[in-house]
Automatic annotation (TrEMBL), chain A:
This is Exporter of polyketide antibiotics. The chain crosses the membrane at residues 20-38, 80-100, 120-153, 159-182, 189-207, 238-259, 297-315, 347-367, 387-410, 430-453, 460-479, 507-525. It comes from the Bacteria. The keyword Signal does not apply.
TrEMBL record, chain B:
CDD domains: ABC_DR_subfamily_A (cd03230). The lineage of its organism: Bacteria, Bacillati, Actinomycetota, Actinomycetes, Streptosporangiales. Its main location: membrane. Coiled coil: none annotated. This is ABC transporter ATP-binding protein. It is found in: Cell membrane.
Length: 531, 305
């Protein structure tokens, strides 16, 4: 077992490095599941209320596409319905980021090379990374199931629910273990894994959107579908767990085979030669940031276009299946405005705005990784000023989300407009419902710039904040949070177009706050020491 | 002649650690100035203050007549910098980085660039991630040397180069000096410093402990002498300035403070010199004296506790 020598040491090192991040995510995700179950217990106290709710959700394609069906009128099924969807995806995202961080991330930075010279086997780093992530997911699953049982929910269902989350964490850790072998940068490795996660979610949405009459076989093709086939609190089909476990095992085996075949630091694709001289475009800070950021912008844009087309494709169905007063009730409770299509569009756009914010955060954090990677230093030793250098990247956090949301608006508007034979009317309404989200996205970008300027070591906390805002928006109404708590998230202030009326003041305020945060962050960056 | 760099009483703290503690440095225009000190002495921190990347907590810093923190944009047109640990963007080729840095500095000499690429045997088409440490350093060196900057700031620029390339580097720096450019060279390679530098500054724990031409510094140190005499000497070890004297019959080896050389030689000739080997202090000895003082001082402070 020489190839595994040092695994224990590396695992301890990984936990030491993650001693803040991992507990934070376990706490946030755990509190989300347990908190949601706790508050909805009161709201859905009678069987009649629950059956009503389940029936209305299950008739509503937008709800089905976003979160999947309510499988049973049991209290567990109803109250954990929503966290089974989006929050489970968040479990997957955290899991894949952690995996990449401890595999390709260490390799890219050269840290792995440093430890590999010691008594560290070839497979030790990958094994240690996977152990770290799987342990994290296991702790989360145990805590969540204990919490749910403590609330008085059935033990078997609670374990099945937590196990569902665990399988998502496991699958995407395994997928990330593979993508981490394919590419030389952790950025592309995470990007590939996220794209795969998006695809899986989309397949699940496709399988669920039509209810029982839809293409439910699609569910068998997605880890999110497997999770719902576990049927927590609704029969608990334990054998389904074989699927994600087998899939993860195959991925892990592939990852190990790839590690065995390649050199340390290298990807699978050989490096090609580049140009001997710089093109005319590579002449300033903006030219450089374009070179560094364009790949990720293109990838995100492709993802947004596909999502846009998919969402536009199902929007039409929403109209056909308006679920009576109950459905409307539910949607209002979930934060939508009037009208099923409008509410669906708004829900979809809010979700895309969160994703666009994720793009903005990573675009700004590029500043930090350039700084800590000592790549800012040679640039800042030239006539390029600090603000000029920083603006080259901040520009992507401002213009990038605009491009993404505009693309989303165009795709949804176009596809839905064509399908409903009402392009002239639908397109502008949908397009503007996408664009109106931007000020909130820019606030997130501004927060990240401010963190980078004032507290550079905490800059990555922007991810945590984004996670908090996501859960606030998704679960705030269900958790019956107070208005001021909801108001903490910039997304709360976005006018709920296309259904609700446009309100200018919140938009102006959001833009002002975003501008102020960005300017303050840049000013602070100008004054501080470079690290 | 004016000073290209003039630093006095520079203080820089990182939290509670004091990285620079009243450092002085003066580099005259047109000279190659060696900047020496043990690891962690504050060389890179000083350079980063000079580049305006760090803000000084106290002290006067003047770079090409300006303030490196305030006049960043104007000063940086006139300097070129090679960091000690060169990292490159993984997806940019070496040639692209050289051109980019040249353009950001405000111009480079295309002919000189081509010539340098050839001399350093650097393939500019490789991507950043494919270069070895030495080759990454060459990328930064070519970019700096091909610029028309009047001041070159080089932070241990040859730590990854092979001896052949080290040779090329030394010739390049000599050419730079001949064409009137000023060079601040932080280095650990003493032969390089001896070959290139007009003057050196040695720093320790954030302070300048020695500064001057190599000849000046040598004067402060000891010369080693091994001698075979006609008759056994007498009272040699008690002469002022003599250290580590080993007398075995007529064979003597000792170290003598260079300023006291006269008296010792006179006494030796009295005894009759059969053969004599005298070695001037090497730069190594010069450094070791300063570096060792530090560890001795550290030991003493530990012992005192």
């Amino acid at each position: 077992m020489n190839a595994l020598a040092g695994t224990g040491l590396l695992t301890r090192l990984a936990f030491r490095r993650d001693r803040v991040v991992v507990p934070f995510w376990i706490y946030l995700l755990g509190i989300t599941a347990i908190g949601t179950a706790y508050t909805s217990r009161a709201a859905f106290s009678t069987l009649a209320k629950r059956a009503d709710f389940a029936a209305s959700v299950n008739k509503n394609p937008s709800m089905l596409a976003l979160y999947g069906p309510v499988q049973d009128a049991s209290i567990g099924s109803v109250s954990l319905w929503k966290v089974g969807g989006i929050a489970a995806a968040l479990v997957g995202v955290v899991s894949l980021f952690l995996t990449v961080r401890h595999t390709r991330g260490d390799e890219e930075s050269g840290r792995l090379e440093l430890v590999s010279a010691g008594v560290i086997g070839r497979y030790a780093a990958l094994t240690a990374g996977l152990i770290t992530v799987v342990t994290t997911e296991l702790v989360l699953a145990v805590l969540v199931s204990i919490g749910l049982v403590a609330l008085g929910l059935p033990t078997a269902g609670s374990i099945a629910f937590a196990l569902g989350w665990f399988t998502i964490g496991l699958v995407f850790a395994a997928v990330a273990a593979v993508t981490a072998q394919l590419t030389t940068t952790s950025r592309t490795a995470s990007g590939l894994a996220i794209a795969f996660l998006g695809l899986c979610y989309l397949i699940r949405a496709g399988g669920d959107v039509g209810g029982h009459d839809g293409p439910t076989w699609l569910l068998w093709l997605s880890p999110f579908g497997w999770m719902s086939h576990l049927r927590p609190y609704a029969g608990d089909d334990w054998w389904v767990i074989v699927l994600p476990v087998a899939f993860s095992a195959v991925c892990v085996a592939v990852a190990f085979a790839l590690v065995g075949r390649r050199d340390i630091g290298a990807g699978l694709l050989p490096d090609r030669l580049g140009p001997a001289e710089a093109g005319a475009g590579l002449g300033g800070p903006l030219g450089l940031s374009w070179r560094l950021q364009r790949g990720s912008l293109f990838a995100w844009a492709a993802g947004f276009a596909v999502y846009g087309a998919a969402i536009g494709g199902v929007t039409e169905n929403v109209e056909d299946m308006i679920g009576g007063s109950n459905g409307r009730d539910v949607l209002e409770k979930l934060g939508g405005g009037q009208g099923m299509v409008d509410a669906f569009t708004n829900a979809a756009m809010s979700l895309m705005a969160l994703l666009a914010s994720a793009y903005a955060v990573q675009a700004v954090l590029r500043l930090r990784s350039e700084e800590t990677g000592r790549l800012a230093e040679p640039i800042l030793a030239t006539k390029v000023g600090r603000v000029g250098w920083a603006l080259g990247h901040v520009l992507f956090a401002v213009v990038g989300p605009a491009v993404l949301m505009a693309l989303e608006g165009v795709m949804v508007g176009l596809v839905h407009g064509l399908r409903s034979h009402d392009l002239g009317d639908q397109f502008p309404r949908i397009f503007w419902s996408a664009i109106v989200q931007l000020p909130a996205v820019w606030v997130i970008a501004g927060i990240t710039v401010a963190l980078f300027g004032f507290a550079p070591r905490l800059a990555v906390a922007a991810w945590g904040l984004l996670g908090v805002f996501l859960l606030l928006g998704e679960l705030g109404p269900l958790l019956e949070l107070k208005q001021w708590e909801m108001d903490l998230s910039p997304f709360t202030h976005v006018p709920k177009l296309p259904g609700a009326p446009m309100r200018t003041m919140p938009v102006v305020w959001l833009i002002a706050v975003a501008g102020l945060l960005t300017a303050a962050g840049l000013a602070a960056f100008r004054r501080r020491d470079l690290s | 002649m004016t000073d290209a760099i003039s630093v006095s009483g520079l203080v820089k703290n990182f939290g509670r650690t004091r990285a620079l503690d009243g450092l002085d440095l003066s580099v005259q225009t047109g000279e190659v100035h060696g900047f020496l000190g043990p690891n962690g002495a504050g060389k890179s921190t000083t350079i980063r203050v000079l580049l305006g990347l760090l803000k000084a907590d106290a002290g006067e810093v003047s770079l090409l007549g300006g303030d490196p923190w305030r006049d960043v944009a104007t000063l940086h047109r006139r300097i070129a910098y090679v960091p000690g640990d060169v990292t490159l963007w993984p997806n940019l080729s070496g040639g692209e980085v050289i051109d980019l840095l040249g353009r950001l500095r405000g111009g480079q000499d295309a002919k000189r660039k081509a010539e340098l690429l050839e001399r350093f045997e650097l393939d500019p088409r490789k991507k950043g991630r494919a270069y070895s440490k030495g080759n990454r350093q060459k990328v930064a060196l070519v970019a700096a040397l091909a610029s028309d900057a009047e001041l070159l700031i080089l932070d241990e620029p040859t730590s990854g180069l092979d001896p052949l390339m080290e040779e090329v580097f030394q010739r390049c720096v000599q050419e730079e000096r001949n064409s009137g450019r000023t060079v601040l060279l932080s280095s650990h390679i003493l032969s390089e410093v001896e070959a290139l530098c007009d003057r050196v500054s040695i720093i320790r724990k954030g302070r300048t402990v020695e500064s001057g031409s190599l000849a000046d510094l040598r004067h402060l140190t000891r010369t080693s002498i091994s001698v075979e005499l006609a008759t056994p000497p007498d009272g040699l070890a008690d002469l002022p300035g003599v250290h580590n004297a080993k007398i075995e019959g007529r064979r003597v080896s000792l170290e003598v403070d260079t300023s006291q050389l006269d008296g010792v030689l006179a006494r030796l000739t009295e005894a009759g010199v059969r053969s004599l080997i005298s070695r001037p202090p090497t730069l190594e000895e010069l450094f070791l004296r300063h570096y060792e003082d530090e560890s001795v001082a550290a030991d003493e402070s530990v012992a005192a506790k």
